[in-house]
Amino acid sequence: MLYSANNLKDVEILKKILIVPDSFKNSLSAVEVSKIIADGFNYYQDEFEITTFPFADGGEGSLDVIDRFIETEVKTCYTFDPFLKPIRASYLIDHKNNTAFIESAKVIGIEIINRDPDCYNSSSYGLGIMIAHALDQGVENIYLFLGGSATCDGGVGMAAGLGFEFYLDKRKIERPIAKDVKYIHFFDENNVHKRLSKCKFTIACDVENPLFGEQGASFVYARQKGANDEQIELLELGMINLGRIIQEKKGKNIQEIKGSGSAGGIGAGGYFFLDGQLKSAFAVLSEISGLEMQIQSSDIIITGEGHIDFQSFQGKMISQIKIVADKYNKPLWLVSAVRSLSEKDILRMGYGKISSLYKSSPKTINVHETRKKLFRNSKKWALEIINHK
To answer: Fewer CB atoms near the end CB (10 Å): N or C, the chain?
Structure first.
């Protein structure tokens, strides 16, 4: 049987297909994924009503979603990548609402580096420089989208870029990197950007992980950012130290804040140094774009990402879309380049279908081959619907 019981209901009218994927990292953007899936369904002309809705959950592509629904101006500034190499990077300003939208992946993202990741020796300093540039434009609101970062410094580098001064004993660190965080004893905020306190920050998180612990920023994400076992343990000490500082200065247990472990702990740094409010990036983008209304008016929703693993279901995009799809009793199908979970486990979670383009993770992703596989899979799904009408 091709469909679970809830997918069989009213199968004869399953014509409205909503395609709402994230990007396939290192291969295809969300826009490209949407188009290829749509082309596969449109192979059978006039059979389906297709709506493409490329999306993001705080990482790469978040500003593309914003730009489709809000009139903005692109601003470019000189800043620094995760390894403090000078770069130029862009963000968006909505002049009507005096609001800036910043995507951390464009500044300190793992996608922008042209070397092996090394989060132990990286920094979010460049993100602070970009925030300062936005503050210089006079904005009163900043949405900071977290996700896809190459660092694990708890936002300490970001804070330094905004004028916070950090000390190891009596020695000031000009541009702290992740390995410094465990040694920080105190900081001085006398020289922070003058407009920082006049701006409201929304920290849009892509995951719900806490700052430290077994499910925290270091143990869950640092390895994929290049850290070895010893470095992960040392990074964890840095996150614990940052948590101690937050407890002492703000009287708040940062572990109670969902998403504080986002982007290598920048969620916690945004909460503390920017006095920001942490929110789900998916919820922010969904509200701006009207995604829930699109899901409500569709018959089948197709989503996916490049690699589906256990992290995908910890508040990331595909799990958030499922919450909305379940609300309206809509079948949700998943497609990925690769997956680390069994088909049985994923279907048991209530997803209607799961398809992976590759049986095992290739050493390198062939973009042309991925396009062909994605197109063929979409054609197959379309034909299965047609044959069951």
So the answer is: N
